[in-house]
Design goal:
It is a single chain. Helix 1 packs across helix 6 and helix 3 crosses helix 4. The chain is built from 8 helices and 8 strands; from the N terminus they run E-H-E-H-H-E-H-E-H-E-E-E-H-E-H-H. The strands form 2 sheets. Strands 2-1-3-4-5-8 form a 6-stranded parallel sheet, with helices on both faces. Strands 6-7 form a two-stranded parallel ribbon. The chain has 296 residues and is an alpha/beta fold.
């Protein structure tokens, strides 16, 4: 079905996505601003997507786009740089994709659009613009939106709005994947350090997602039938469980006792709802830290 452009291809999610697509026989055009010499020699394009001409050049010849390039978290740059860079990159590739007539855009939004970090204020996290409220309910789903506590989250909320409008203009599906905290298998060794204190990872209701599941979610969003992703849908993408070795309902009772649990989640079930992604694109997380570490 034609070449797929992957932006942010040298990042944590990008490398996993490129690997997943190549394993499934896709023709890839990879691009990243921070492409290394080895990346360039392997065929990656170095492009600054805040420049519209370079964005168009990166997309030229592609039939579809998986857009992962952004400043990937709050606190890595000043608030203004984070917001301006992300929104500019996203507008440029979204508008360019519509202008060039790509058949689909899949892109990295964020769990932060849902209010993450929950229960955290500027005294604890410098990037916060105000005190982050607790979730209104759990498991937190796509309707817990928009709640932006910092300019990174705001950049993603604005970009979802832009994507929705350009999807309407163009008729191209723009699929936003609201990723939880992305982890590689090597990151799981850090998890036991937070088990003693339920408050330490409360900020995203103890969520995470394996980079390999991120990659599969991107491919599934690319391959889903048109009626499943018409317009500009957004899907929460998280692991099936939490980072903790104790019950999810117990964590909620201890840290957010006034937050109602709207359905049974299972003993260790995620408090970020992935039901819509399961239904619409067939997403089913296959990886867990429990495959790598003992839960004690």
């Amino acid at each position: 079905e034609g070449r797929v452009c992957v932006t942010g291809a040298s990042g944590q999610a990008g490398r996993a996505v490129v690997s997943e697509l190549l394993e499934h026989g896709y023709d890839i055009a990879a691009t990243d601003l921070v492409a290394s010499r080895a990346d360039l020699e392997a065929g990656m394009l170095r492009a600054d997507l805040t420049d519209y001409g370079q964005a168009l050049g990166a997309l030229e010849g592609a039939a579809a786009l998986i857009h992962l390039a952004n400043i990937p978290a709050p606190g890595l740059s000043t608030p203004a740089v984070t917001f301006n860079a992300n929104v500019t990159m996203n507008f440029n590739v979204f508008h360019g994709a519509a202008r060039l007539g790509l058949r689909r855009v899949v892109w990295a939004s964020s769990e932060t659009t849902l209010g993450v970090p929950f229960g955290v204020g500027p005294d604890e996290e410098q990037s916060m613009e105000a005190d982050g409220p607790p979730p209104r309910y759990a498991p937190v789903d796509e309707d817990h939106y928009p709640v932006a506590g910092n300019t990174y989250a705001l950049s993603k909320v604005v970009s979802e709005t832009v994507a929705g409008q350009i999807a309407t203009w163009s008729g191209i599906p723009f699929v936003a994947l609201r990723f939880s905290n992305i982890m590689d298998a090597g990151d799981y060794r850090q998890f036991p350090s937070v088990w003693a204190d339920a408050h330490e990872r409360k900020w995203n209701v103890w969520g995470y997602v394996d980079a390999r599941d991120v990659a599969v979610a991107c491919r599934l969003a690319l391959e889903a039938p048109g009626n499943a992703v018409a317009g500009s849908p957004s899907f929460v993408i998280a692991a099936a469980d939490t980072v903790m070795n104790r019950s999810s309902s117990g964590l909620l009772d201890e840290v957010f006792p006034d937050v109602p649990l709207t359905r049974e989640v299972g003993e260790f079930g995620s408090l970020l709802s992935i039901d819509r992604a399961r239904h619409a694109i067939g997403y089913e997380p296959r990886h867990s830290w429990r495959d790598h570490l003992p839960a004690s």
